[in-house]
Amino acid sequence: MNKGMLNVDGGECSSSHELIASALAWTKSCGYSDKMVHLAYSSKTKQRWQRLDSGWVKINVDGSISKNNTKVAIGGAVRNSDGEWLTGFNMVTGIDEIFRTEAQVIVEGMKRAWLKGYKQVEINCDNVMLIDTICNGFASISNIAEVWLIHEWCNKD
Question: Cα–Cα distances in Å, from 135 out to 5, 7, 121?
Answer without folding.
Answer: 30, 30, 14
